[in-house]
Amino acid sequence: MTSHIEVQPFIRNDQFNFIKFQVKHLVNAHSTVKDPDVLKAVQYGALDNIINLFPEMEEHYRIFDEIVEIKEEIQAENFLAGLKPYIIPFKQLTEKTVGKLFPKAKKLKLQFLKDIDFKEITYLGWYDIRSEKKFLIFDYKGKLMGVQGTFRHKTKGVCSLCNRHGEVGMFMANVKSGKETYTNRGNYICDDSQECNGNLQSLDRLENFIENLKN
Ligand SMILES: [Zn+2]
């Protein structure tokens, strides 16, 4: 029997993406910056930024120590792969649970679910060709929430979930605004939800988006 202490997953997908971008920045610095003092500042800056994501979790900080050693792409990849066991997966979604979130949607094609890496998503989003609608599933404060809407007017723009510039479309949801009244709420979001999940570096915008749909 091994005696190592098992660390429970504590890194969210958006936090993992933040770490990934910090590490990428570090590798770039090594190929462009020659001044050792500047490099040191970048290294420890990256470590600080990452540690600051996890206040009051000092016991986990050693996991990030090797960041300051990273110089090349391959080291970055190994480091990031080593973090995978610590990533919190999205709630396991089956065809049944998804069906319950969208009781009125008929015959949703959900075969793609088996190919989803639940450690790589903050939300689940897909376009259903048959109903011409985009479906989104969020884990909002521990509870699954499904939203569906039309998805049109594809263009280049900034996504209101991940804040990145890219291919976006207008997601328009019909939400309850009063006891018997409904209103349309529209937002530009990434066309490719997988890519969007890979770009999310915080939950701020995503939570605003959800709050806006709820009110
Ligand atoms: Zn996005």
TrEMBL record:
Keywords in alphabetical order: Elongation factor, Protein biosynthesis
Segments forming domain Elongation factor G-binding protein N-terminal: 10-91
Protein biosynthesis as UniProt keyword: yes
InterPro entries: EF-G-binding_C, EF-G-binding_N, EF-G_N_sf
Domain Elongation factor G-binding protein C-terminal treble-clef zinc-finger: 105-202
One Pfam family this sequence matches: EF-G-binding_N
Source superkingdom: Bacteria
Single GO MF annotation: translation elongation factor activity
Protein name stated in the entry: Elongation factor G-binding protein
Species of the source: Siminovitchia fordii
